Every structure is written in C-alpha cells, then in structure tokens.
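Sanity check

After download, print the first record. It should look like this:
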Amino acid sequence: MNALNKNPAWKGRRGPVVLVIMDGVGYGKYREGDAVAASKMDNLTALTNENPHTKLKAHGKAVGLPSDEDMGNSEVGHNAMGCGRVFNQGAALVSKSIETGAMFKGGAWKEIIENIKKTKESALHFIGLFSDGNVHSHLDHLKAMITQAKKENIKRVRIHTLFDGRDVGETSALEYIDPFEDFLKGLNDSNFDARIGSGGGRMWITMDRYGADWSMVDRGWQTHVLGTARQFKSAREAVETYRKEIPGIIDQDLKEFVIAENGEPIGTIENGDSVIYFNFRGDRSLEITAAFENENFDKFDRLSCPKICYAGMMEYDGDLHVPSRYLVSPPSIDKTMGEYLAASGVSTLAISETQKYGHVTYFFNGNRTGKFDEKLEDYVEIKSDVIPFEQKPLMKCAEITDKVVEAVGSGKYDYIRLNYPNGDMVGHTGVYDAVIKSMEGMDVQLGRLKKAVKDAGAVMVITADHGNSDDMFEHDKKTGAVIHKEDGKPKAKTSHSLNPVPCIIYDPEYKGEYTNEPKDNSLNEGLGISSIAAACIHLLGFIPPEDYDKSVLKMN
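Expected structure tokens:
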C-alpha cells in the first residue's frame, strides 16, 4: 500500500481529526415520530447552525444495496465510510448468486447436499433471521434454497426461525409465518418434508454479537440443536401464546420454542445433518458459527455436538476465514482509509462500546479483523452493559467521551473515530421516551467533545451511518399518517429509516483551504456517506485517492 500524497495547500491544525458517528441518527421525514427533532439537542443544533453542514444518503444504492427501497444498516454504512467507495453488499451479492445459479454450482452447496445424501434419515437445516428486512437476511433467499433442495432430491428440511421486529414491524411475525407455511405446503409431498422446527426472537436467542451475551447463543443452541425449549404444535401457536402470556412483548424478544409431535421435537440437529446459517451479515453470525465449528469451544456447555456439515451464507470474517464453508463470497473491499492512513504514518484511535466496537474496527476496515499497523493504531472497547437498552438509554456515551476527550488533548493521535450507539440500539427498542433520553444524553457528550476539539485546535466531523431514531412511528405509506394500535397509541417503528443523515464540519481554527460557511451549500450536496472518507483525508492534509468518492468538502 502506497502512502497518500500530501496536499501542499493544507496549512495544518494543532489537533487531530475526530470523526463522530452518531449511530442511527437521521433527518426525519415526518414530524410525528422523529425523536431526534423532538429531543432537546442544543449542542447538535448549534453545531449545525454555526458550521458547514449538509445531508448525506445512507441507504439503498448509496451504500451498495440493491435498491433505494432498502434501508441502510451499520455494517454497510461503516464499510462505505471506511473505504470511501460503494461496493455491492450482502443482499445484492446473494440475490445475484441465486439468480445466476452460481450458489448452487458452488462447492459449499454441493458439499451440503452430498453430506445429507450419505444417510437416508439426514436433514438439511436452515437457521437465520426470518425476515425480508434485507439487513441480515431475506426470506426470498431461504425460499430459493429450499426449492433447490427439493430439486436435488433432499427429503427432509427443517427451518429454525429467528423473529425480527427490528428491521421490519415490531409485531409482524405472523405476517411472515402464515405465507411461509403456505409456501411449504405447496412444496411438501410424499417425497419432501419441509417444516419449521424451532424459533425465538433475535434478541433473545442465537444472534448475539461481539461476545456481548453468550447466553443468547446458548439458548439458541439448546433450541435449534438439542430441542430442549418449550414445545408447541406450530410457530403460530408459539407466537400467539407468548404474546398472550407476556403483554407488550415484541418479536425480537419472543421466547424460544420447538415444534413437537407426540412430545418429541421434530427439528433437532443430528449426526449426518447439514446446517446452513442463512444470514449474510457477519456481526450476528460469528458466535453461532463458532459454536458449530470450533472443536475447543468453551463459551458454554454445548452438552452434545453433532457431527454435521455447516455453511454460512457468506464468509463472516475474511481474515480468520470464518466459517470454513460459505455459499457466497463477500465483497472484496480493498484500499480502505485505515490502510492508507497507516501507510502514511497517521496515528489512529478507534473507539466505541461493545455494541458498535466491531463497526469502527472490523466493518470500518472493510470486514478485516486486526490492525494495519500495531504501532500506529489503538482500538478501545468500552464494555456494554447486558441490560435492555431502554432501561439505560445513555448506554456508555459518557464513558466513550471520557476516553476521547483525553485522547484529543493528549497529542498522541492524528485521527480519532468513535461511534455513539444510542440512536440505533435504543431506537430498535421502539420506546420513544427512552430514545429522547438517549438523544439528549448524547447531546451533552457532543458539547464536551466540542470544547475538547476547540481547546486542542482539532477538527470534528459529525455524521451517522443510517437513520433510526428519526422515524420511531409507523406511518401510512400513502397518506403519511401515523398508524395507531388498538389502545390508541402510535405503533412503534423499530427498524432503520430511509432518511438522510447529517454531515457537519467543526473546524475552529479554519485557515481557508475549503469553503467554510454556516449554510447548506458550503459543502458538496447530493452525496452518500462514502464521501466522508475523502473529507477526512482532506482534513488530515492529504489528497484522497483518485478512485475514492467525491469529498463533501469544496476545496479551494
């Protein structure tokens, strides 16, 4: 990797460039339900009004997703900001692989199928997010694989459903269950038996990330593999029962269940079976993959570990090559900003709490584990609390700020990037009042950062990876009216939004190298968040690579 070329016109700053990623904070389309606009955020308002600012696209094609109907997410958002260009992402890659038939011609799929055919009783299992949110998975991918399995004379299929309620409606599980059951009925015959075997909510079983709560994965293992969860006759019965027993529960928190006949689970995973984890996004795929693949696994007692053929939808960690078998190759992201900065001698700090630590490191570096230069880079993880986010909506934003304020004043770093998870993680709970508290708490921290940046003669770039807290109520798509529940309260929206996100440049010791006026058109407009990389490189005194997307800065 070659070093970046220095910009001879850049006059330098005393302090570092600080990139602040306000996860899940956008500009709302609707007044009602926009918790960002409704929050008292004097610091963010002042930073916006007094400095160059614009709106950036953070969804759809602007971040490599198939269409502009696809909401952005933290994975692709950090990829885009970190590599300065737009790559086709998971959903698009998987869809294309299925469309062209490449998936079913690949070695991983063939191994999965051949393994099952060795034993007549063996089954093909699918585990993944039961959703069409297109953030972690898509049901169309699952349906295509089940259909292909029947074509290849597989006799027995079991599906282990992880209910969403975050990237789709918070209580929409039955809207997916019922049509899917009809889909299976249309395929099933005397030679083909495909059924749902188990399930539960994505924030209760299986889909933990960054080692935040391994008990989730433990519960998933017991449910999908061992079949030891509460028994029901159908997935519908499980959902309806838990909703009746736990009023107000949303899909992501639904308790675990197994489908049973005559007291026996129908979908346990046995020796000789094959398992496909059909999520394409990596962060919530690595832990369950480790439970299936690691011989010396020690995060919980698996009790029994069947000998199976396992594949992930994609390679979830390109450096560690996890999983060992995957159906679709992820985007090959090279020449990231982090790699360029390391080659150019730029000292860097990346920091967040556990929930987003991997985003400012792994995803920001193009799905790469580890550092580019151990001497130049420091990565700091603030441990997240294992507690529902609505119960502690400030999360660890103060602790993150403590470390960053110290780092800004230390003179040790040229470039600092941080992520405040509040807008996304609390936004996903659907609890409006908690989101307000999270935003106002984060705003206090922005004030602290502003002072530290000014004192150090640094530069601060404030942006987000996608929207969420800006769109907390479900709206009628035609009229825009808020949709209300039977009790008259607005129906909560827990998924990401399609809204643009902020980009604010705070440069208290500005020296004239670019247009710097507190009005909308002082920055380049109509760009996506991939333009953040070139802007940071400009502010560090370098010339961005030619193939990077256009900088948000209007250089003089």
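If your output differs, re-run the checksum step. Summary of this record's structure: DSSP finds 17 helices and 18 strands in the chain.
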